[in-house]
Amino acid sequence: MFMILGYPAPLMFGQLLLGLINGAFYALLSLGLAVIFGMLNIVNFAHGALFMLGAFVAWGLLNFLGVNYWFALLLAPLIVGVFGVLLEKTLIARLYKLDHLYGLLLTFGLALIIEGLARNEFGSSGVPYPIPSLLQGATNLGFMFMPIYRGWVVLASAIMCLITWLIIEKTSIGATLRAATENAPLVQAFGINVPRMITLTYAGGVALAAFAGVLAAPIYSVNPNMGANFIITVFAVVVIGGMGSILGSIVTGFGLGVIEGLTKVFYPQGSSVVIFVVMVIVLLVRPAGLFGKAA
Fold this sequence. Notes:
Helix content is about 70%, strand content about 5%. With about 300 residues, it is mainly alpha-helical. The protein has one domain (about 10-285): ABC transporter involved in vitamin B12 uptake, BtuC (Orthogonal Bundle). The strands form two sheets. A two-stranded antiparallel sheet has the order 1-2. Strands 3-4 form a two-stranded antiparallel sheet. A hairpin with a 4-residue loop joins strand 3 and strand 4. It is globular and about 60 Å long.
């Protein structure tokens, strides 16, 4: 059997794949958080609950309306995005001029409410969501068998991250968004509806979380705790990459997923804390994060 650093190659590549899958979710979720914080200056602790909500919306579309996985990938983010618009208009918009702590407390409360309602309706064990027939099975890569759906998750996440980065960094819409965060009155003086842009930005951030939730639904049981299991780690990813940094969230998300996966091979006991160890080291060396800008 082919060995890498004394370990069987299938074990190494298998853990690398698991790391990439986790990294895909870290990247998508931290990207949504970075968009919301970078543009709105709100620490959105409800992000994990909205990730979970995206998975439940996909499950509901399938079981009540017969909408398949592929349409759910489009509809669930739109539905959760509309829900995000309602949250932003009714609650979050009141906090923009207040300290970050108020936004953190409000969104934490929203997360508890959303998760509690889901738990009351579906129980803690959750409900299954089938893998679409087109993505079932595995393919032989020569050195390992890769489940097709897992490969799709990594690919879809990477494409969505790239599209988001291109929109924010390389288009006039993104330039206007960045300008609005620096000097909203000046941008509004040019006839641009800044409050509408802020609302749509929040909706886009939570839609990314919902998209990740749909991707996660066939892998994990669709349950009320699935967002809570990710959110603390995702916040660590955002801090390491740099609060509000789009590129930092993407690179750090995938990179830390791989580090976590390989740690399970070399030192399994440390796999659950390795990301937080990296966070401490990064904050000591570069408090603004790897891609963040110093205040």
